């Protein structure tokens, strides 16, 4: 195990809420401060630590898939540019919901829940009530807080946060952060589609071992790992064709293969496989093999996504939701209106919005007509003219070339019967 891995494991084993510093790690583990710094940054990327203003770096609980839509109180501090007045040991806890203290204190009790957040101004009685009920408190307007409230927050291990922003602004910040998390949750990631604990070969294996594994599994592509289960290569039919059984697999495997992490979007993995001409990508964590994803796995996941209700909305989704779609002989036709989300600063539909519509129309033509999942190869816009707000437009996307691996579609946009934009969309097909 490398020093870097030792430090990561050390951080993971720290008690949640523990403070971490580069100097402390360097001294305790007898490593350079540079090594300690890089390990802390990697642990932060993995979600095990968080850096807070005026507090420093703190060990936090890594979010599970079920909790991804929740913020931690530590994240709330950063979002509202706040300071922690008390209850620091509870910063790692998840925020279940937040409420604004704009009512009589006696009426608040029925709405306050454990690990919720009360957003309130200079109201000591409301602050005390929330803390006693197991909720955190965010004091807006930069008001001072009574020492009694600070001590109570420390005793119940619930954060007491102060922000100079007003209540409306703070609530807007938190709402926006929750919205971003919901959009992120909608993205299907490699971990949702990969094959866990896959078959693999040790780098000391032979071509004969590959053939035996082929007979058992009926697969033809296997990751190759070293003694620490780190991926060092891929062995496929093309690599071993015509070779004798006693030849070491490490001499014929494809070295330095492309790998992805389990949080990589499936669409990105699919794009890599198409562009690199490969059928399988190893999935790693700390460089160690934990799974594999194939083109077929990626296609199934992307197809399943199209049937799932979306919690958060993306720009593409918002724009395309304004259009109805119907199939034509060679492609599709869409009808809809330009909306505020599509406008540029001058009050007409922006080139970017029209490109979004045209690109999506091209992809949808292949999906509707050929039942093919594709990734973009090139997108050429020949011209576009401005269209005003709430004007109806018609978009046609016709497939003009279709091969086994790629295709082209011509996309035209019409306003009041006149052509206002024209483009050519080229795609690569994700093989089934």
UniProtKB/TrEMBL annotation:
Keywords on record: CBS domain
CDD domains from the UniProt entry: CBS_pair_DRTGG_assoc, hot_dog
SMART domains assigned to the protein according to its UniProt record, in alphabetical order: CBS
Domain CBS per the UniProt entry, residue ranges: 194-252, 253-314
Stored InterPro entries: CBS_dom (IPR000644), CBS_dom_sf (IPR046342), Diverse_CBS-Domain (IPR051257), DRTGG (IPR010766), HotDog_dom_sf (IPR029069), Ser_kin/Pase_Hpr-like_N_sf (IPR028979), Thioestr_dom (IPR006683), WH-like_DNA-bd_sf (IPR036388)
Record-linked PROSITE patterns: CBS (PS51371)
PANTHER family listed in its UniProt record: CBS DOMAIN-CONTAINING PROTEIN (PTHR43080:SF2), CBS DOMAIN-CONTAINING PROTEIN CBSX3, MITOCHONDRIAL (PTHR43080)
Protein name: CBS domain-containing protein
Record organism: Biomaibacter acetigenes
Lineage: Bacteria, Bacillati, Bacillota, Clostridia, Thermosediminibacterales
């Amino acid at each position: 195990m490398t020093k870097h891995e030792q430090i990561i494991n050390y951080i993971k084993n720290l008690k949640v809420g523990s403070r971490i510093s580069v100097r402390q790690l360097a001294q305790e583990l007898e490593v350079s401060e540079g090594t300690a710094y890089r390990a802390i940054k990697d642990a932060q990327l993995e979600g095990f630590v968080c850096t807070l203003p005026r507090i420093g770096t703190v060990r936090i609980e890594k979010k599970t898939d079920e909790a991804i839509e929740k913020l931690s109180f530590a994240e709330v501090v950063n979002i509202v540019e706040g300071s922690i007045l008390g209850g620091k040991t509870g910063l790692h806890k998840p925020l279940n919901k937040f409420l604004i203290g704009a009512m009589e204190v006696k009426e608040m009790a029925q709405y306050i829940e454990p690990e919720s957040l009360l957003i309130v101004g200079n109201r000591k009685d409301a602050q005390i009530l929330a803390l006693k009920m197991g909720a955190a408190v965010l004091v807006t307007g930069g008001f001072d807080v009574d020492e009694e409230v600070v001590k109570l927050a420390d005793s119940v291990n619930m954060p007491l946060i102060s922000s100079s922003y007003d209540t409306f602004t703070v609530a807007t910040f938190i709402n926006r952060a929750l919205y971003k998390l919901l959009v992120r949750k909608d993205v299907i990631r490699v971990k949702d589609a990969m094959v866990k604990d896959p078959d693999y070969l040790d780098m000391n294996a032979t071509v004969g071992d590959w053939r035996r594994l082929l007979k058992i599994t009926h697969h033809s592509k296997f990751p190759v790992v070293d003694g620490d289960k780190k991926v060092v290569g891929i062995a496929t039919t093309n690599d071993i064709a015509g070779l004798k059984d006693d030849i070491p697999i490490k001499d014929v495997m494809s070295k330095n293969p492309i790998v992805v992490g389990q949080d990589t979007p499936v669409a990105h993995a699919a794009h890599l496989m198409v562009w690199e001409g490969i059928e399988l990508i190893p999935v790693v964590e700390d460089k160690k093999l934990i799974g594999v994803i194939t083109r077929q796995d990626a296609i199934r996941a992307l197809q399943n996504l199209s049937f799932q209700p979306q919690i958060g909305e993306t720009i593409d989704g918002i724009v395309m939701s304004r259009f109805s779609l119907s199939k034509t002989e060679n492609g599709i036709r869409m009808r809809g209106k330009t909306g505020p989300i599509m406008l540029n600063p001058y009050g007409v539909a922006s080139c970017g919005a029209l490109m979004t519509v045209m690109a999506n129309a091209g992809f949808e033509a292949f999906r509707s007509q050929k039942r093919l999942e594709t990734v973009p190869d090139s997108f050429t816009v020949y011209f576009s003219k401005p269209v005003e707000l709430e004007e109806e437009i018609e978009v046609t996307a016709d497939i003009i070339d279709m091969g086994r691996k790629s295709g082209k579609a011509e996309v035209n946009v019409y306003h009041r019967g006149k052509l206002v934009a024209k483009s050519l969309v080229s795609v690569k097909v994700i093989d089934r």
